Amino acid sequence: MTYTDIVVGTADGIATITINRPEVLNALRSQTVRELTDAFLRADDDPSVGVVVLTGAGERAFSVGGDQKELVSQLDAQGWRVAARELRDLFAAMRGIGKPIIAAVRGYAIGGGHELHCFADLTIADENARFGQVGAKVGGAPIYITRLLPKLVGEKKAREIMFLCEQYSAQEALDMGLINRIAPAGTLDDAVARMAADLLAKSPTVIRTLKKAVSAENVLGDDVIPMIVESLTSFFGSPEQREATTAFAEKRQPDFAPFRSGS
């Protein structure tokens, strides 16, 4: 695959995958998702690679999630099925490869970008990073985080993050167990390099086995997830979803009042 949305570099046992769309704060379109999946699988197959680092280009964002113009705002029922399948393939690749993934977060890790760092094995954040979900506010549906997030932060906090769509500082994220470490401003690359070197000094067979053991609970493949995907087909392209995406584009609060009677 020829990459247009990401950049991949390999050196000294580390494969660095960079989401390279800084002009849109590294928002994820379908092409981005497919490229990321391919890059993770290729890193897993590369015997010279022991650690994978995932990051975003620029200083402003790791990723702000789904590209509203090219993905979320254009979804209909069939488009949703395709997008859901592609996202599942990406998250399954991240959870399934035998090499540890470090998410290096600068700036915003929001929506799908937040999900990405959650599916990484470890997260190091710049002290100015911000975290949060936005699906319930902008017409997205972060279904794949519903099984994983409660395991990371507990059920009550997971509901808060998904329902209220607030943003959290790096310190708040550390305190709730959402990330592993905070790097002082300007030192993120050094902190990631140290952690990667530490991982490379460990037995790759043991690390691979430990990762598979921790990931044994299939948070992506139980019976509930396919049911949720199908249940949302009527939502995408509906007036309710269009109100959310239009409000986001117009920088106003969406008006969901007309849609509550059918809940």
Could you please describe the fold and organization of this structure?
With 263 residues, the chain is of the alpha/beta class. 44% of the residues lie in helices and 16% in strands. It is built from eleven helices and ten strands. The protein has helices at residues 30-45, 77-96, 112-119, 135-138, 145-153, 155-164, 170-175, 188-200, 204-214, 224-231, 239-249; strands spanning 6-11, 14-19, 51-56, 61-63, 101-105, 108-110, 122-126, 130-132, 168-169, 181-183. Strands 1-2-3-5-7-10 form a six-stranded mixed sheet, with helices on both faces. Strands 4-6-8-9 form a four-stranded mixed sheet. A hairpin with a 2-residue loop joins strand 1 (6-11) and strand 2. Helix 1 runs parallel beside helix 2 and helix 5 (145-153) crosses helix 6.
Q: Return Rg in Å.
A: 18 Å
Poorly predicted spans: none
Label the structural class.
Answer: alpha/beta
If you average the pLDDT, what whole number results?
Answer: 93
Q: Order of strands side by side in the largest beta sheet? A: 1-2-3-5-7-10
Cα distance, first to last residue? 43 Å
Residue share in helices? 40-55%
Total count of helical runs of at least 4 residues: 11
Main beta sheet: strand number and arrangement?
A: 6 strands, mixed
Count of strand segments: 10
**Strand residue content:** 15-25%
Order of helices and strands: EEHEEHEEHEEHHHEHEHHHH
Shape: globular
Outline of this structure?
By secondary structure, the protein is an alpha/beta fold.
